[in-house]
Design a protein that fits this description.
The protein has an 8-stranded parallel beta sheet. It is an alpha/beta fold. It has a single domain, classed as TIM Barrel, CATH 3.20.20.10. α4 packs across α5. α7 links the parallel β6 and β7. The structure holds pyridoxal-5'-phosphate. Pyridoxal-5'-phosphate binds next to β8 and α9.
Length: 211
């Protein structure tokens, strides 16, 4: 990862590695913790709570990212557990998250997920709706998004999607870009990613297939 940053002409400290621990064996996670890795990504609130809640005390500098779609009824638990929620993607969830932030007295960093490939089965706000949504977040909901996240369509060249995300972020004055996974993190870093979400390249294949 550091090598990919340097190759892209960027400083390694500009790019955070999110180790995606979803559906990975405990021993791999323990090994990563022992090596000093502190930033982890999970896509399910319940699974993340079971795994990470018990470790919080021993590792107070853990940073947990929610990278999967968030259901409204899990918002409060998500706000209590996660340091970054990367998957805000609809007005209704913005309302629920704003209420949860108030109730929990805790404000995770928030990224807006953009469905750059406009895939019907995928979460994320559509690119054409992104600017208005981003303007509404502080104005209507009192939420200050720090940046954007995307998952390019499988089997497509991701570069166009990373470029689109970068463009939407720039015109909205946002600096945080979570993009790039095991297959394409080098490309994402070249396009300005600050966070790359890498699972299988670190830990090996997951236990069960999941979107
Ligand atoms: C599972 C997942 C990843 C990690 O995928 P790998 O291909 O294993 O690196 C990254 N981002 C999101 C949103 C995921 O759901």
């Amino acid at each position: 990862m550091a090598a990919a940053a340097i190759a892209a002409g960027r400083a390694p400290e500009e790019v955070t590695l999110i180790a995606v621990s979803k559906q990975q064996q405990e021993e791999g996670i323990v090994a990563a913790l022992r090596l000093g890795q502190r930033v982890y990504g999970e896509n399910l609130v319940q699974e993340a709570m079971a795994r990470w809640q018990p470790k919080r005390e021993a590792f107070p500098d853990l940073r947990l990212h929610l990278i999967g779609p968030l259901q409204s009824n899990k918002a409060l638990e998500a706000v209590r557990l996660f340091d970054v929620i990367e998957s805000l993607d609809r007005p209704k969830l913005a309302r629920v998250l704003a209420d949860a932030v108030e109730k929990a007295g805790r404000t995770p960093k928030i990224l807006v997920q953009v469905n750059t490939g406009e895939e019907p089965q995928k979460a994320g706000i559509l690119p054409i709706e992104a600017d208005a949504f981003l303007q509404d977040l502080p104005r209507i909901y009192g939420l200050a998004p720090a940046g954007l996240m995307c998952i390019p369509p499988q089997g497509e060249n991701p570069a166009a999607h990373f470029a689109l995300l970068t463009k939407i972020a720039a015109r909205n004055g946002l600096t945080q870009l979570s993009m790039g996974m095991s297959e394409d993190f080098e490309v994402a870093i070249r396009f300005g990613a600050n966070c790359v979400r890498v699972g299988s390249a670190l830990f090996g294949p997951r236990e069960a297939a999941q979107a």
